[in-house]
Amino acid sequence: MLLIYSTNLPTVTKVIPGPKYFMALMLVVGLWLASPQGFAQSPKNQPAATPTPTPSGQQNSAPEAGGPQGDIGPIAIPKKKEEAPKKEEAPKGPKKVEGLPQNFSMRVTTQLVTVDVGVLTKEGMFVPGLKKDNFRVIEDGVPQKVDAFNQIQAPITAVMLVEFANNFYQFEADSINASAIFATTLKKEDWVALIAYDIKPHMLADFTQDKREIYGGLSSLQFGMSAETNFFDALYDTIDRLETVEGRKYIILVSSGRDTFSKHTLDQTLKKVQASKDIAIYAVSTGQALREYAESHGLMSYLCPITDFSCRMTYLQADNQLKSFAKMTGGKSYFPIFQGQLREIYADIAQTIRNKYSIAYRSTNTSQDGSFRKIKVELVDENGQPLRMRDEKGKDVKYQVVSREGYKAKQQVE
Prior knowledge:
By secondary structure, the protein is of the alpha+beta class. It has helices at about 20-35, 35-40, 170-185, 210-220, 230-240, 265-275, 290-295, 310-330, 340-355; strands at about 1-5, 15, 70, 75, 110-120, 135-140, 140-145, 145-155, 155-165, 190-195, 200-210, 250-255, 280-285, 335, 355-360, 370-380, 390, 395, 400, 405-410. α5 runs parallel beside α6.
């Protein structure tokens, strides 16, 4: 119902509403809601707050502590207090001991000497099972105390030094055959190098565990480039190379032993061999069959240059040089006539160099004068008498003790 007040009528008139009145009412309500006064009543349309202006020339910056920027400004993070660096304490020195000087030095001049010893029967077989007390070491006539002792069987490190010059075919054939047979005795753990020499040494294969490289180097030996056999120079150079290699080393020397044109003399080479450390030389002579034939038929002069006074003496001197170099280093020398002897020779070498007694002692001679000192190794029993060996039948067994003849002492440098 709608009541309409009129100022002209003294009484209130009752009007019954109809459809037109409802339409008019809805129109009035819609116009009222669209007016500014209607929007002012809605909380969702309140005006945004106006930011407070900052003084000119200044910008909103993060607090002193700093921090990330947020929707309403920088977020302050408390600044970590800086701690003063700790002072490192100086290391304390050792406590003073009464009666002991504070400044002192210690100098050790005793030299440790290591000697590899082979004990072989007359047939060249290694004798195992010996003990430390069975060995007596004498240096320059003075008995030494054995500090360390061990029986070893280890891979070998060896250089095959082969003479291959443009001389007689028999010498060249012996060199190749002897070297090839030695290569067949090598094991996969062994390290071997191959050097051939005539007027100078030629490195055919550096240290390798591959036999094929050794065979390849030997197959390259077709013709000798020079007729000179500079034996001393080649041996001197090989020892120089081996001195930089650690451990026990061997030189398998396949040579006639004859020297023709070396820069180094025999005396210089002997001193070099004496001063070598942990190097043993095993020499296999070449051309023995040809020499035997030439000597029995009066043809020795054809094996040497016309300038040689006595070719026979030249080759005897060559044999003596091979023996001397081998003996001085604790090795052995062989002089095969037939090729069939080579396998037996190399089996003996392998038996000797793979099985050793290693002895170490500290020399009682503390002088560092660079002198050469002779060593002698003997086998003794529990009473200090020469050791006697017997076989299963009770018969005495002849044996030989193989070791280097000595060593060169250290030279003190002022």
